[in-house]
Amino acid sequence: MMIPACPLADLPRGEAFRLEIDPPVTVFHTEDGELFAIDDTCTHQDASLADGWVEDCWVECPLHASKFNLKTGEVDAPPAKLPVRTHEVVVDNGMVYVKLSTVAPNLPHCVARKLAGTLA
Amino acid sequence: MVGASLAGLSAARSLRKQGYDGRLVVIGDELHRPYDRPPLSKEFLAGTMGEADLVLEMDDEDLGAEWLLGARATGLDRTDRAVRLADGREVRADGIVVATGAAARTLPGSEGLAGVHVLRTLDDARSLREELAGGGRLVVIGGGFVGAEVASTAYALGLDVTVVEVAPTPLAGPLGETMGAIVSALHADHGVRLLCGVGVKGLSGERRVDAVLLEDGRSVPADIVVVGVGARPCVEWLEGSGVELDNGVKCGADGRTSLAGVVAVGDCANWYDPRAGAHRRVEHWTGARERPDAAIATLLAWGATEPGVPRPPYFWSDQYGVKIQFAGHAAGADSVTIEEGAADDRNVLAVYRRAGEPVAALGMNQPRLFTRWRKQLARTTS
C-alpha cells in the first residue's frame, strides 16, 4: 500500500515526518540527503522515534538510547531487542510516499495491548 | 570484567566489537545474568513487566565469555594482576575492567526489621513487589529519583504513600531548587504526602516496622518502608590494591585508573569530566552504556588513544505518567528558564545556563524538544 506522506519541500534534511497511521510510521530525511521510513514506535517502550537523535543512518530512541538502523531496522543494543520494520520511500513529483511493509510490526507490550483493545 | 550489570556487559560488548578475541571472564556478585535496573522501580514493580523483559542480552548474543556469577571480588593483586574472589578463587588477567557498581545505602538500625526495603537489585524488587501487593501505608524515606518512582508506582497500585525528604526541596542536587520543586510537586498533585526539611530519627516496631520517627518528634505510621537515600560505590575490595580511590575509583577522562591495565566504568567510576574541569561520578544508565567504549579503547591501546569528550550525562525518570528527562549538569548554572510549556501543566522544557551558555536541559513530557536541546548541549559544550 502506497501512502502519501508530505511534500519533499516540507521535509528539510535533519527532519522527520510522522505519518499518523496505525501503527505510526516516520520518514527521516538525513543530513546526507537520504530518505528512510521505519516504524515510529520503539520496540522497547512507547516512544516516538521521530523525536529521536539521528546520526549517520541511525536514530537513537529519545528515551532509552537504543539505536535503530534507518536502512535495515536493526537495533544496536538493549533495552530494545527487536528491530523496527523498514518501509520503502518513493518520491514522485515532489511528493514523498511510503510503501508499507507487509511484515508484522514489533510493537512494545503496552502498545500491542492497546492495539488489541485490551488496555483502556 | 569485574561486575556483570549494564557497565560490565557494555564493556564486554565493546571488547569484542573492538576486536579482542581472547579469553574473557565476567565476574558478578549477583546470581543473575545482566538485567536492566531502571524498570525495577517502575514497570517491574508495577507488575506490567516481567523478569524476562529485564534481560539485557540479545537472544542470539554470544560474547564468548565465562560467567562467574554469585562470585564476589574481595581483592586485587597488582603484581600479577589477579582478582581474588570471596570463595578463595583467583582470576589472573592481562586487563581488568572494574564495573562493580554501587550499593543502596541503608538506614542504621533498620536491619532485621520486617517491612523495611531498599531497591537496587532484582531480589530487592521481587521482595518489595510482593509486599506492595498487600497494600497499606507506605513511607518512602528519601525524595530522590528512586524514592519518587517507588512512590509513584505504589500510588498507582493504590497504596497510601508518604515521602520524607531531609532537604527543603527534593531533587535540588540533580535539578536545582527551582526545577526540583516543580518536579516534586507531582507528589502533591496525586495526593501523595511530601514531608520536606525533616530528617528521620529512626524506625519503630518490634519485629515489623510500624512507624517512621521524624527528628521533629512526629511519627508517621507505616506498614512498609522504602529507604531510598542514595548509593555508595562498591570499591572496598580495591582498598590497598594501588587503584586510587576517591568517591569511587578515581579515573581519567578515558576511564583509566592509577594502575596500568585497569580501567573503571559505571556507577563505581569517578571519571574526570573535561567539561566541568572536575571528577564526577555519574550514576546514570546512559553513562554505564556509553562510557565502556572509551574505557575499552584505553585498555586495548594504553596511552595511544586520545580521550574524546563524552556526551553530556543524560537520565530519565517516569513519575505519575510524566516523562522526565535531564541532560547536562545543573550545578554551576546561574539561571534556569522555562522555554516551552508551563510548570503548572507539568509540561516543561527548561534550560539551565551559566554566563548565558546552556549547560543543562530538563524536559517534562517534552521528548522532541528535549532531544533538540540534548543535541545542542553536546555541540556547545564539546
TrEMBL record, chain A:
- Keyword list, A-Z: 2Fe-2S, Dioxygenase, Iron, Iron-sulfur, Metal-binding, Oxidoreductase
**PANTHER family xrefs:** 3-PHENYLPROPIONATE_CINNAMIC ACID DIOXYGENASE FERREDOXIN SUBUNIT, FERREDOXIN-RELATED
Q: GO molecular function terms here?
A: 3-phenylpropionate dioxygenase activity
Per the database record, which ranges form the Rieske domain?
A: 3-98
Pfam family for this entry, one: Rieske
What are the EC numbers?
1.14.12.19
Write down the species: Streptomyces ureilyticus
Q: Which domain of life is it from?
A: Bacteria
Return the Gene3D superfamilies for the record. Answer: Rieske [2Fe-2S] iron-sulphur domain
- Record protein name field: Bifunctional 3-phenylpropionate/cinnamic acid dioxygenase ferredoxin subunit
InterPro entries associated with the record: Rieske_2Fe-2S, Rieske_2Fe-2S_sf
